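Weekly sync notes, structure subgroup
Attendees: PM, AL, DS (notes)

Item 1: joint prediction request from the bench team. They want all two components modeled as one assembly rather than separately. Inputs as received:
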Amino acid sequence: MAIFGNLKDISLLDLLPLLSGQQGKLSLRPKRGAELLLFLNNSRITCAKKGEAALPPHRVEEELFGLLDRPEAEFAFHIGDRPDRCLGRLDLRLEELLLKLSTLRDEIQSVAGALPLPDTVFAFADPGRAEGDPELRDFVRLAWSQLERGTSARELAGLLGMPLDRVRYLFYKLRALGVIQPLAQSPRPGRRGIARQLLGLLKRRFRTWSWSH
Amino acid sequence: MEPLKLIVTGPVGAGKSTLIRTLSETEVVDTDALASEAIGKATTTVALDHGTLRLDGHLLHIFGTPGQDRFDFMWEILAEGALGVLLLVRADRPETLPAARNILDFVVSRTQVPHVVGVTHLDRPQVWRPEEVALFLGTPPERAVGFDPRDREEAVKPLVRLLELMGA
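Output from the run, pasted for the record:
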């Protein structure tokens, strides 16, 4: 084994191109959570596993996206290692995957200040408006039951195993399209009386202001 | 009588601390510190501002929250049982509107507390009018009030609007 280190020192965007011409097994071991194994061959990911489970393509993207911003995660590349058996064979071109991930990261960073807060609860306004965008449509289908009752980006990220910022970004786009909106709580009942009383007191106290506005 | 609580929130520099200092009849407890990042002013609230306004037998506690969204965990706790939330927004800084909308979305979806949007700095040359701010925030125009938080007679305007809407 000659290639090892930590993603906080060598980012995934540097590491993956370095390994693209190699055949072997890349182990990514975050500080928390299960180890991610990627089997590389001929500039492609041919198999991906987390724990014992083989990952489908979209989960591989999500996992790698979560590792993009140099978290504490050790990596080691074992040249020549092949999967014993892989239930879900993949054919993910590393070059395309890297381009997609870095584009997505740039998009998210460009609107970082406008992303919804992780615990804001959203629900459907008009789910049909997501149909024009395949990525949004697929996400909406995946999160349908949660968005019907109302859910936050944090809850959904946990349930779907997606990076939180990715879900916040999808929420941002869905909100802009009018697919979802914040789920408004009903105001606490029984405060009309105190409001009227305080209003009367304020009007007596602040006499000089025009109350006609 | 039950103590009442009013929450003043909004992005950095909207005038939250100024409003509380203007309205409070007791010495304001503030927690200003030198800003650790470029936020357009020298100091910022790092924990809470607190002041009070007595209206006959009712004591209204006014709490101001920090403007940075990394303190969002405080908003839900503070808003619990509150009379209302005043969200302050600067009319001359459209770049703070997305942050203001995020705060409002959070408050609306996580609490049962009514809100009013107070639009400040309307005396600047180029400004968004209160109804335009309301449009961006996705709240009805009657919930947005323009006012000057430095002036005592003006500072009461958003509170009055809140109570009018609650009592209607």
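Discussion: Residues 94-110 of chain A form the longest helix (17 residues).
Action: AL to compare against the crosslinking data before next sync.
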